[in-house]
């Protein structure tokens, strides 16, 4: 109920609901449209369904290892970084439901590579998780790499042949979804993915220093 309340506050659309013990009843309609069911109600219903799926999976994960969460539509934020370009590199990514709730955040150290390779690897890893872990059908990708976004949209040509394999892998992954959109965002809107990049890199480099 707390999570649904957060979603309701975000969209500024308030349903009628009641709860008794472990049962919650929610009625969705739009007051300004003579109590009819509108697109706002349908969107909020989808968000509530997603929150229920995520919560149920989290509660049963320890009991049923093969429990899967199905989120039909996700927001994907991906980022990559290299300290030296080429140099020690890592990828980070975040998956959110359409209500803006984080369902997954992760990073992976890549070793020595370039910034563009790290950006592409982040996209690849995130698309894999969206498909194989959450069975998403529609993905909205947001990255601060204008190069990756425009190459995936076929606006920019890929002049660096070293990027061909990972680019082609991402193209193949995109085909597994019903719809994938790509949008460039400023770095300040991609902070969580960037945090995962630096976290993965710091942990890896700290471990190497200790050895």
Q: Would you write up a description of this structure?
A:
The protein is α/β, with parallel strands linked by helices and 211 residues long. The protein folds into 2 domains: 2-60, Transcriptional coactivator/pterin dehydratase (Gyrase A, domain 2, 2-Layer Sandwich), CATH 3.30.1360.20; 73-210, Nucleotidyltransferase, domain 5. Helix content is 42%, strand content 26%. It has helices at residues 2-11, 39-60, 115-132, 146-152, 164-174, 191-210; strands spanning 16-20, 23-27, 73-82, 87-96, 102-113, 138-143, 179-184. Strands 5-4-3-6-7 form a 5-stranded mixed β-sheet. A two-stranded antiparallel sheet has the order 1-2. The longest helix is centred in the N-terminal third of the chain and has 22 residues, at 39-60. Mean pLDDT is 87; it is low at 56-67.
Q: pLDDT below 50 for ≥5 consecutive residues: which ranges?
A: 56-67
By CATH, the architecture of the largest domain is named: 2-Layer Sandwich
The outline comes out as elongated
**Average pLDDT across residues?**
87
CATH class category label of the largest domain: Alpha Beta
What structural class do the secondary elements suggest?
alpha/beta
The biggest beta sheet reads: 5 strands, mixed
């Amino acid at each position: 109920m707390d999570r649904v309340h957060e979603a309701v506050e975000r969209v500024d659309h308030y349903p009628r609901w009641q709860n008794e013990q472990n049962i919650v009843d929610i009625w969705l309609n739009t007051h300004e449209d003579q109590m009819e069911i509108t697109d706002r109600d349908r969107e909020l219903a989808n968000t509530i369904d997603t929150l229920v799926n995520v919560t149920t999976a989290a509660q049963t994960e320890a009991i049923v290892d093969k429990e899967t969460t199905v989120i039909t539509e996700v927001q994907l934020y991906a980022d990559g970084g290299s300290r030296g370009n080429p140099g020690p590199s890592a990828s980070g990514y975040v998956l959110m439901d359409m209500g803006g709730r984080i369902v997954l955040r992760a990073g992976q150290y890549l070793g020595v590579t370039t910034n563009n390779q790290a950006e592409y690897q982040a996209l690849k890893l995130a698309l894999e998780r969206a498909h194989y872990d959450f069975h998403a059908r529609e993905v909205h990708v947001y990255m601060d790499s204008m190069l990756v976004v425009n190459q995936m949209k076929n606006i920019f040509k890929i002049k660096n042949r070293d990027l061909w394999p990972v680019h082609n892998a991402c193209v193949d992954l995109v085909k597994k979804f019903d719809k994938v959109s790509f949008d460039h965002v400023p770095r300040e809107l991609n902070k969580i993915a960037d945090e995962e990049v630096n976290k993965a890199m710091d942990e890896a480099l700290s471990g190497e220093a200790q050895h």
